[in-house]
Amino acid sequence: MTAGGVPTVKLPRYSYGPDCTQGFIALDAALIYTMEDAWQQNTPEISCIPDGTYRCRPRRFNHGNKGKGYPAIEITGVPGRSLILFHRGNVDDDVRGCIVVGTELGVLNGQLAVLKSAEAWALFFGRYGGVEFDLVVEPVPPLNGTMP
């Protein structure tokens, strides 16, 4: 919890690759794996977000769903960016600057992927879909405690 009683969710990133950025969120006894775009200088719709702390809020999102909409979690406060969401998806082609979640890692159609996204989304949204929380995005510290 932060000082104001808002939950804090940590998103350590373990891979900043040329095609995607990967991390995880520890949720009770489960790991929720995350996938974002590769780092492209925080350019909207093609880059992962910079490391930092951001306020997240529940939001209904309508894009691409024939006006029916679906629940999502919006990441706010990212400099120069808006409408960044946590949502379901599997591969980098599904993100457009957002973050998708899965309970497993794998390969789908030749691309790195997070798998079982609906299952991960049910766990993550079930816990954080009705509240605001602070998201701390940071690289995984090196095992020996020093940076190269």
Structural summary, described in words:
- With 148 residues, the protein is mainly beta.
- The chain has one domain (8-139).
- The protein has 1 helix and 10 strands, in the order βββββββββαβ.
- It has one helix at 117-128, and strands at residues 8-16, 20-27, 30-37, 52-61, 70-76, 84-88, 99-102, 104-108, 111-115, 133-139.
- An 8-stranded mixed β-barrel has the order 1-2-3-7-6-5-4-10. Strands 8-9 form a two-stranded antiparallel sheet.
- A hairpin with a 3-residue loop joins strand 1 and strand 2 (20-27).
- The longest helix has 12 residues, at 117-128.
- The protein is globular.
- The model has no long low-confidence stretch (mean pLDDT 89).
What is the average per-residue confidence, as pLDDT, rounded to a whole number? 89
Total DSSP E strands = 10
Secondary structure category: mainly beta
Number of domains: 1
- Percent helix range: under 10%
Count of helix runs: 1
Radius of gyration: 15 Å
Q: Taking strands numbered 1, 2, ... along the chain, how are they ordered across the largest sheet?
A: 1-2-3-7-6-5-4-10
End-to-end span in angstroms?
31 Å
Oligomer: single chain
Low-confidence stretches: none
Largest sheet: 8 strands, mixed, barrel
> Beta-strand percentage?
over 45%
Q: How are helices and strands ordered from N to C?
A: EEEEEEEEEHE
Envelope shape? globular
